[in-house]
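Schema walkthrough. Field components (list of strings):
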Amino acid sequence: MKEIVVISGKGGTGKTSLTASFAVLGAQDVIVADCDVDAADMHLLLEPDFKAAENFFSGVIAKIDQNICNQCGKCADVCRFDAIPVIDGHHIVQPLDCEGCGYCARICPVDAIKMEEQNVGNWYISTIKTGSTMVHARLGIGAENSGKLVAKVKNEAKRIADEQQKDLVLVDGSPGIGCPVVSSLSGASFVILVTEPTVSGFHDLKRVYQLVNKFGIKAGCIINKADLNPDVTQQIWEFLKNNAIEHIADLPYDESFTEAMTQGKTIIEYRQGELQEQVRQSWDKIETIVNSL
Amino acid sequence: MKIAIASGKGGTGKTTLSTNLAVYLAEKKSVVLTDLDVEEPNSGLFIHGELIHQEDKFNMVPQWKSDSCTLCGNCREVCNFHAIVQLVDQIMVFPQLCHSCYACSELCPSGSLPMTPEKMGELQEYQSGNLHFIESKLDVGQEQAVPLIAQTLRYVDENYSEVMLKIYDSPPGTSCPVIEATKDADLVILITEPTPFGLHDLKLAVETMQELKKRFVVIINRYGIGNDDVVDYCDGENIPIIMKIPNSKAIAERYSRGELLYLVVPEFRAELDKLIGFIDTLNRETEQ
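Field assembly_structure (string):
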């Protein structure tokens, strides 16, 4: 089984619109995983049925039993996250600040602190409009451990692919270079970098590629809105060449990305034209590369 | 006053707004702009100032001292993040998993896990006239953005007076880095685009700000594209929309070159004036 991960460094480059289009083109052959758990949007295009839902528990947070607590303040002294302020004479844990290290609970002289398991989000297994399966999630507000939820979504997608004897898992990753991205990259066979020829897009591409390179994963690149700034596009071409990154496609600046989304459709379902043809060719290219790995 | 500029969805214009607002305001008074999107900081691409300070930023992680360790296993047991593994004759620390809680170190009976600094990124401070710009960059391979965001906020608090206007360019999303970046803000500006993705992620961001009990307003970027759902949603929830940036390929082209829009796009400047008017009113309210 092969795993294709789509990331971008910078947000808003068209990553999710393209991943959803590839999911439609791959149809029954691919299991889809939406690992952008912070701002999961692929469900808006792929019509999942949310058939199976489960809570995701990860990590713990401290809770002080005020009936036992003698307000000695030792917990607040050891807390490196300033998560235990005194409010109206009582030591109260602030859930959004608590990182769940459990130090306070260990040193509390009267044993007033319990660590409680935390529900940080939900994850779903759905049938989508292509008839295939998508694993997706929704992270709770301000939750920690999104990296772990990403790993959960990915592992479930892989398990299902195994079960249904599918050869491909297609993963929509999150922006940035931090823990959710690292988590979505681990175990990937091929990475697709979606970028745009803006000073920010190129800057972020270079940073996220450094990360991909640390993992030693083969990468390809799609330049979206390539005609927006020919100079920067040229610089990106050079960068791809120098780093042996497959140059998959240059897509034009085209507002049908947004028009399709507004109708709840992927780009390739919306209308047929040059852009759609290029997206199809991109997917063919990606399949060829991945099959040869 | 502290103003954080945030969004659920990435690529909606946080950096465009932060940099233009800061430079425009700095024409008249002192402003501090801080880029807290430490994973992919971009504000610096639009700001040209003189580098006046630079420092490495460190995270404290335990380092194992083999000579005094009795291999009692207490450290492994107290670590809730599985950052410590005990092998037959040694202790291994995985710094990427460490949250710097100090439990293993301070609870070690033989003092064999002293906390030692490990570099996680760097902070740079620039100045251009009235504009002070601070940017922190996470080292590639470091996974946790929150400690660097926290240290950057502390640097700004320690070096700039409370009365100065401070603008924070925040990371995208709704998880821990955004909470850290917005939790001290007096006003959060959520910038979105009028599309289904924009609306979906705006709702998540709104829930987050309500949970944090923050005062927040909305700005719509690429106005004219997509549909009216974002406007209808904000009207229904009584969330003020204080600025609309028109959808235009010409604006996108200028942005792609790293240009400041308010200098070259009059419609943008006119909209930015509305935001500045709003901030001025708010400032007067707080002063009273």
